[in-house]
Amino acid sequence: MLSQVYCSGFQAFRxxxxxxxxxxxxxxxxxxxxxAIRHVRSWSNIxxxxxxxxxxxxxxxxxxxxxxxxxxxxVKLGSAVVTRGDECGLALGRLASIVEQVSVLQNQGRxxxxxxxxxxxxxxxxxxHEILLSQSVRQALHSGQNQLKEMAIPVLEARACAAAxxxxxxxxxxxxxxxxxxxxxQILVTNLDFHDEQKRRNLNGTLHELxxxxxxxxxxxxxxxxxxxEPNSDLQGVNVxxxxxxxxxxxRLAVEMxxxxxxxxxxxxxxxxxxxxxxxxxxxxIFYPGDQQSVTFGTKSRVGMGGMEAKVKxxxxxxxxxxxxxxxxxxxxxxxxxxxxxxxxxxxxxxxxSEVKPAGPTVEQQGEMARAGGRMLxxxxxxxxxxxIHHLADLLTDQRDEILLANKKDLEEAEGRxxxxxxxxxSLSTSKLNSLAIGLRQIAASxxxxxxxxxxxxxxxxxxxxxxxxxxxGVLLVIFESRPDCLPQVAALAIASGNGLLLKGGKEATxxxxxxxxxxxxxLSIHGVKEAIQLVNTREEVEDLCRLDKMIDxxxxxxxxxxxxxxxxxxxxxxxxxxxxGICHMYVDSEASVDKATRLVRxxxxxxxxxxxxxxxxxxxxDLLRTPLxxxxxxxxxxEQVKIHxxxxxxxxxxxxxxxxxxxxxxxxxxxxxIEVVDSVQEAIDHIHKYGSSHTDVxxxxxxxxxxxxxxxxxxxxxxxxxxxxxxxxxxFGLGAEVGISTSRIHARGPVGLEGLLTTKWLLxxxxxxxxxxxxxxSLKYLHENLPVPQRNTN
Length: 795
What we know:
This protein has 24 helices and 25 strands.
């Protein structure tokens, strides 16, 4: 064993390299924010977070979410990660990113170790340069002319390359880690160092001492002298593994040092169920011991000694020894800059090796079941889908006691943890269940001709007819918080529209959601489509669900504005239907009725202030200040204990004003209201367009001309005249229920009911028609005649 702590050496090389490393390191975006600092170590010139990390080593982590508790971590860098595409030289930018991530984790109080390849590639680059330089000098001396002949480079022996590259590779790591005030140490090992008990103890002691001193050990096989692997000694139990490549070295090191996590970075995303690149290859999210029998391994990477099969064997050996393992891609330019930190944060990256199989299906399997079930659902007769919804409505009332009992458990567990508005959303009651049942029956009645309805018919030519018909969108993912009543509403809409459905509810409503989902599946069972609606109960993070772009066609968030924004940000290639904020306005015109204005303001603000369609900003015409109408509105708000925030113009009219509003673009979600003064209906419209969220806006006036001007010019999803903002609701619109309120301008807008969950497809029926028949000299001509469309059943 050769152990060296590099604090000097190769100064000339380092001086050339340092400016590049500094510029690369400083340009990286991943930094620890000062606002998150809990403790700053005196020896470091950069601040970092120290996190409470303590874990008794023995069993590996069962779930990805537990990886954030890992304290001791080994990161294995494969040859394909470290080297350039030409296999001669190092991928410096990629290495700088990896060093930065390791440094961030080290500075959080974790104990990081690197197992790295790259010495052979670095040495090959140096030796090629030396050979070319030597050949060019010799040719110049022996040639009478200055023209050099084409020079052939001999095949370079790997051990010689390793000997030439080890020192330069370590100097590179030293220069990079120095930028984060971290010292690194190089340790070169061979298989004999693990089989000789004295050397093994020495190695173990050296590593523990380096970790104690907060030094990052950088371990590599000593490729300059490494002997061939011993035959028939590989994977014979926890205490025996042949160190024949860096995969087996990393596994052996992880178990010897009782590490919590081994991250193996390669040039593929993880483990696939068939060779990557094949048509049917699917990334395996979680791999369990015994699953390797169903996997076909491809060829090894372009460089390095081990292929994916070697990585899996090493990973399973480490897992058996109590170390969790993740195999991921360290070369992809879009993810390599944060792949290590993402894994430690528990994000769904690469393949996670676990000994604990979940009780139910994975979310990927649930997505496939929802897809298949949704397609079967769409083929049912409209009367059959309506029958399922009617049965679900009956179950809501028949099983009322069981539902309320489950909801009571949720409320008891949430007491003291949730704010009052969220507790109110979480609560179910007999009246709520009765209203839900009525709404579901409305959906059933309106669903009779939803799927397969003909929207347009065109005769293209003789015996060639085109139809545009409604069809389901596909698979919907609905994510909702603290709203168990949302589940049967969305389920009924999905059934009516023939869509598969994935539901992800908040953990605060676990018991309520479970029984409501069981009732939905019971209703679906009457026509054999039970699996069309799936409730995601795994520890799947919302961000991970939003990446399933091959399984999900539309995401519908139901919850706080922060939840909607997070989902819109996390969704990768999947449309999101919803609104991030519900900043609803009411403009009280100079010709408004006193009684109407007071009633409308009270209902819009006080009936349910936590709702997204509750009033948040009240615009008052300037002529109404110091009038009975204004005084009556203020007195009512005071009685209802509404906290008033004064807009800038309103505050300027008052000697003693309420607290001035911090922002005119605020959704309070509580008994708080912003009041602002405007000079005209046009100024009110301009204010709404500037500070509103295009959700719901209202005018209160007795002047029809002013009202129509407002209705036509306000660009929001819902615009009302003399009506409460709270009418912006699918049930109140007669849609039966809604999956949400959309403020987007594509597809559905406003309360989204059954119609908003449908798209269209084109059906063309012909008789041996080909396009060439319609050319200039063809025998047929386009007719493009509009044909009558079957009348829609509105009963």
